[in-house]
Specification:
By secondary structure, the protein is of the alpha+beta class. About 20% of the residues lie in helices and about 35% in strands. The protein has 2 domains: about 120 residues, Beta Barrel (Thrombin, subunit H), CATH 2.40.10.220; about 30 residues, no CATH class. It is built from 3 helices and 9 strands. The strands form 2 sheets. Strands 2-3-4-7-6-5 form a 6-stranded antiparallel barrel. The protein has a two-stranded antiparallel sheet with strand order 8-9.
């Protein structure tokens, strides 16, 4: 039997996008503290700011950042860490001042948020194939031979 937390997480990740209409909260949100980069057009070149997510849904995201994008600006957002995600485009819905010079920025995605992006935001990056392979190499460094002696072996494929 699954725990209630895992059931809610599965429901959140498997929920499809619902059009934002008159009813608020048509898309469930999930808390996240994933690190991100927020980028928007500036004078001459793009401005990129560090950010940390507060919560995320298929329709949008709330995040904390020190740099403030202009209201109604079209921005790009990506998650950073072990594995960076592709950029996702969004529109700034609101900016609210918080403590210590930070601001809460609310974004509405142009397209429904991809499941991969949601999953990384909520669960973190998946184990990479390289990490799995390195672990397998460590496990295979010492193999037992039929005589019972231990010899250094190599990973075979």
């Amino acid at each position: 039997m699954r725990s209630p937390t895992k059931n809610r997480l599965f429901t959140f990740l498997s929920a499809s996008y619902r059009s934002v209409g008159d009813a608020l909260r048509t898309n469930p949100r999930h808390g996240s503290s994933a690190r991100a980069r927020l980028s928007w057009p500036g004078r001459g070149e793009d401005i990129t700011a560090r950010a940390r997510l507060i919560d995320i849904s298929r329709a949008g995201v709330a995040l904390l950042t020190k740099e403030v994008p202009p209201m109604d600006a079209h921005v790009r957002l990506r998650l950073v860490g072990q594995e960076e995600t592709p950029w996702v485009e969004a529109k700034v819905l609101g900016v609210e001042p918080m403590t210590r010079g930070r601001h809460r920025v609310r974004l509405l995605f142009h397209e429904p948020c991809p499941t991969f992006f949601l999953r990384v935001a909520v669960l973190g990056a998946p184990e990479s194939a390289a990490a799995d392979r390195a672990e397998a190499v460590v496990e295979c460094q010492w193999n037992e031979v039929p005589s019972g002696e231990t010899t250094q072996g190599a990973l075979t494929q």
